Amino acid sequence: MSARSVFFVGKGGVGKSTLAALAALAHADSGKRVLLLSLDPAHNQSDIFERQFGEDARSVHPLLDVIEPDLDRWIRRYLAEVEERVRASYTYLTALNLEHHFRVLRHSPGLEEFALRRIYEHALAEARKTDILIVDMPPTALSVRFFSSPSLSLAWTQQLLALRREITRRREMITRIRVGTKDIEQDRILRTLERETQRNEELTALFGDPDRCAVHLVINPDPLSWKEGMRIREELDGLGIAIAQVDVNKSEDGDLHADSLPDSLTDLPQLGIPLQKQSPIGIAMLEDVLGLIDTAALRRPFGTGRDDT
C-alpha cells in the first residue's frame, strides 16, 4: 500500500468529480504519477475527460491514468467467488440445491460498499508504482458505508476468528484422542478468516492514517451543502477518519464565504474554487481552472501539512 490516497466526498452535485479530476491533473502537472479511480456510479470522469473509461487504466496525461470500473460487474464477481468458496469448503453440501440461497445472496445488504472496497483494494494494489491515488467517491450514504466497512467487518471477523480457533482447538484435541499423532488437515475457513481479518486491519489503519489517506470535503456556498458536509464530518470523525480540507466549489470569485460557514467546518483548511460559466470539460478547460486556483493547496492534502510537490 505505497500510493497515498486522496478521497473526494460530498453531497451529490457539488462538483466532487470535477475537483477529483482537477486534483489528479494538478498532481500530474507537478511531476507525480497519479491514478484517478472513479467509484461514482454516475461515471462522470468519462464525461469530464471526454474519454470512455473502464476497468483498464487509460492514460489522459503522461503521468495520469484513469479507471472507472463497473460496480455491478464487481458485485457479480464477488458473488461468484463466494459461491466457489462455499462449494469448496462444504463439499458435503453438493448434493443439496444451493442455487436458491445464492440468488438470495445477490440481494444482500452491504454488497455495494463491499464491492467498492474490493475495487479500491484492487486499484491500490495496481498503484504500487503510483505516487497518488485520487478517488472520486459516490453519494454520501454509500461513501460513509464504504469508509465504515473495514472497521465493521473487522469487529465481525475478529469474533468469528476467535470462535473458529476455539472450534479448531477442540477438534484437534478430539482428533488426537482418536488417531494419535496423525496430521490434521488445515482449516480452510480459519485461513480465510485470518486473511480477511488482516485485510480489515490494514484498511482500517490506512483510513485512520493522515499521512497515507486524506479526505477532501467538497461543498458549495449554500446551507444545504454545509449541513450535509457537517454530517459527513461527524460520521467520519466517529470512524477516526479526519477531514483534511474543505473545498468550497462554485464560490463567487473564489471567495470562501468563511464568515458564513458553520463553526464545525471553519476550523479546517479551506480552498475556494470560483464558479465557472460552464462545467470544465476536457483537459484544456481543466487546466484553465487550475490557473485560477491555489494548486499548491489542492496538492497539500496530508496530515503533515506539507506541500506534496
Tell me the layout of helices and strands.
Elements: E1 4-10, H1 16-29, E2 34-38, H2 44-49, E3 58-61, E4 64-67, H3 71-89, H4 99-105, H5 111-126, E5 132-136, H6 140-179, H7 188-207, E6 213-219, H8 223-238, E7 243-251, H9 263-266, E8 270-274, H10 283-290, H11 295-298
Parallel strand pairs: 1-5, 1-6, 2-4, 2-5, 6-7, 7-8
Antiparallel strand pairs: 3-4
Question: Could you say how many structural domains there are in total?
Answer: 2
Q: In CATH terms, what is the architecture of the largest domain? A: 3-Layer(aba) Sandwich
Which structural class do you get from the secondary structure elements? alpha/beta
Unreliable runs: 181-185, 303-307
Portion of residues within helices: 40-55%
Q: How many angstroms separate the termini?
A: 20 Å
